Every structure is written in C-alpha cells, then in structure tokens.
Amino acid sequence: MKYLEDFQNPELARGLLADIRATVTRPWALMEVCGGQTHTIIRHGIDQLLPKEVELIHGPGCPVCVTPLEVIDRALAIAARPGVVFCSFGDMLRVPGTDRDLFRVRGEGGDVRVVYSPLDALRIARENPDREVVFFGIGFETTAPPNAMAVVQAKKQGVRNFSMLVSHVRVPPAIEAIMNSPDCRVQGFLAAGHVCSVMGTAEYPALAERHRVPIVVTGFEPLDILEGIRCTVKQLERGEHTVENAYARAVRPEGNPAALAVLEDVFEVTDRSWRGIGVIPRSGWQLSPRYREFDAEHRFDVAGIRTREPEQCRAGEVLQGLLKPDQCEAFGTTCTPRTPLGATMVSSEGACAAYYLYRRLSTPAVPREASPVG
Questions:
Q1: Which of 53, 95, 214, 224 is the right S-S partner for 219, CB 3.0 to 4.6 Å?
Q2: Which CATH number covers residue 133?
Q3: What's the distance, CA 270 to chain centroid?
C-alpha cells in the first residue's frame, strides 16, 4: 500500500504535465465524471496547469447534486410526519427543496438525524420499534451495495419499521445522455474509479465504440487525475477510442462480484430523473419486488409529489458541463453555501461548492440567453 503523499508528488506531477504538453497538438475537451475528481482538480489547480489546448469539463458525478427536486420534496414530506425518524448523510440536510430543507424540518420539530452508514439507521429502527425509521438512500453505484445490504439485513432480521427512500443513479446511461446531447463538446471521459471498483468496466467499451470517445478509468489524487488526462490525450491524438484502466490498484475489469450479487438481488433498473437534467432512461435503481415492502416512497405514498426546478438556478447546465459554476450570474452573490439555490453549492462533491471554496470567482458570468441551453 503506497502512502497518500506518493500520489501528490510534485516532481512526478511535473513529469506528467510535461508529457501532456509534448503530446497535445490541438484542442481537446475532456469530462471528469466524478465530483470528487472535480474537487481534486480545482483544489490543486490542475485545470490551470494544463496546456491551453486541454479543457476540463465538469460532469454530473455528484450524487447529492443530481438528486431531483421532487425526491427532496418527498424526503421533506416524510421527515415532517409524526412518528418518523428520518436518517440521512449530512450532505443532504442543506439541499434545498421547493420551500425548505431537512435542517428546517428538524428545526420545526421533525426527528431528522445524521448517520454515517445505512446500518446506523437500521440499528435506530431496532432500538425504536414504535417509530418508522427511514433512510435516505442516494448515490451512484459506489454507495448502492451497502444501502442494498441494509435492506437485506432488515428483511433477514424482521425489522419491519425500517424503510429506504431510494434515489440511486448509474453512470453509463448518464454518459450516453451527455453524448447524445446536441450541445455536447466532450471528446473523452475520465471515468470514476470508485464506481468501476464496484461495477467493473464491462458497460464502457460499447459506449466508447458507439460514440468514438476514449474512456479512461481514473482515481482521485492529483497524479491519478494527471495520468488519466495523459492517457486520454494520447488516445485522442492517435485517433483511438478504447476503455483504459489507469486505476488498476483499485479497479478490476470484473468489478466486485459480491457487491454485484447484492445489487442484482435488491435492486432493479429503472428510468430516473436527474436534477436539472431530466429523465434518463434506465439510469437508476429502485427496490425489486422482493424488497418492495421496504420502499419508503410506497409506504408513505409520496410518489405523486411533482415539482419544477427554480428558474434562477443554473445547476442543470453545470451538471451537463455546459456552464462553469463561476459563469452563473447567481454564483457567489445570491447563491452561496449559506444561501444555496441548488445542491451543487452545498454538496461536498458539488462543482459550485468547489469553485466557491477554492475562490474561483473571476470568470465573467454568461447571460442566460447566451447559454448553450435555453
């Protein structure tokens, strides 16, 4: 096991940057899919160190950010009910719904608790058999297996007062949707290494071939990001479009068989709405019929809640890579971490939060009428 500092070595970083500069001969636009990668890029100024020909476009890989407004409103409706203990990871408490957030619900008397694992919520359910305990299950393929296992354990242990509000999404259909967009400028992808550590890489070759884009599985430290960029640029310059694993210390082509087995058992693929983007076919999971009794959406009859995104929030354009956060008129003014218009400003993986935290405040705002989307 290497030390973390080995993947932040400045001499090695300079060598990778020199190789990228020596390789690139024309402009290329690459998208890092994962919000964790975005934070590494902005924190370490990687985008500013790259040659001007290489542009990094921030993708929709923040699980909190892509959770649709209607799901947030469903969570708020459940959390406000008497007799409910609503459990969530801390990031979700400040995500704005239509007219409030989970912090507001807690301030108004709702029993909203921050947990660090779905098994914490299951324990709370066992300890409070007279209460309905709901866990907010969000995320990409990375967090889906432990959430699925909590449902398996609830069924095995007979904990009937436990349920899960599910809003899980899948990366490959999102890449498909991005590439099918008429405004897409992406020519190569840095795929999220932690997602591939669970799922493997089997779904990516068809995407790379169909859209003729290289997809490089990439880690999260500065050297990981630079190596992913280097591999992608080399493919583009050679006219190649294959799937390449630059994160072999964590990712195997077959993924994690045990995790895949529990996902197959607990979930089934469904169409899923993404905040600011819309419905992407077969891009999410819902509980399978075997575990439907643990589905909070059905248990509390909130599936009918529908909402509209606030017009002043341009997070959808940010999530699609059509707009940099600091090109939004509201960024850093009416939209801040204390007064967020959207989830991208409050999530620990949100692009807007990264730009605000690391003081990327200087790019001129892009008027809405000049934006690539209407």
A1: 224
A2: 3.40.50.11740
A3: 17
CA distance 299 to 1: 45
Residue 149, pLDDT > 80, answer yes
Angle, alpha carbons 31-15-62 (nearest 5°): 25
Q: Is residue 362 part of a domain?
A: no
Instruction: Look at residues 146, 120, 145, 144 and name the one whose alpha carbon lies nearest to residue 134.
Output: 120
Strands 132-139 and 84-88, sheet pairing: parallel
Residues 222 and 128 in one domain: no
C-beta of residue 57 within 8 angstroms of C-beta of residue 29? yes
- Band of pLDDT at residue 360, cut at 50, 70 and 90: confident
3-class secondary structure, 133: strand
Torsion of CA 325, 328, 330, 333, to 10 degrees: 60
CA distance 199 to 204: 10
Q: What tokens does 69 get?
A: 């407004």
Tally of structural domains, the chain:
2
Return the DSSP state at 40.
Answer: H
Domain containing 34: what range?
4-63+172-245
The 3-state secondary structure of 5-35, one letter per residue:
HHHHCHHHHHHHHHHHHHHCCCCEEEEEEEH
Contacts with 99 (C-beta within 8 Å, 6 or more apart), sequence order = none
pLDDT of residue 71: 95
Residue 325 lies in a domain: no
For 3-56, what is each residue's pLDDT tens digit? 667 788 899 999 999 999 999 999 999 999 999 999 999 999 999 999 999 999
The answer on 95 and 159 residing in a single domain is: yes
Which amino acid type is present at position 322?
Answer: L
DSSP of 282-324: EEEEEE-GGGGGGBHHHHTT-TT------TT--HHHHHTTSS-
Q: SS3 for 4? A: helix
Candidates 140, 181, 168, 144; CA nearest to 57 is 181
**Residue 177: phi, psi to the nearest 5?**
-65, -40
Tokens representing residue 360 in the block: 């990327």
Amino acid at 100: R
- Across the beta sheet with 28-34, the strand order is 54-61, 28-34, 188-192, 215-218, 243-245
Whether residue 226 sits in one domain with residue 96:
no
Bridge-based pairing of strands 84-88 and 267-274 is unpaired
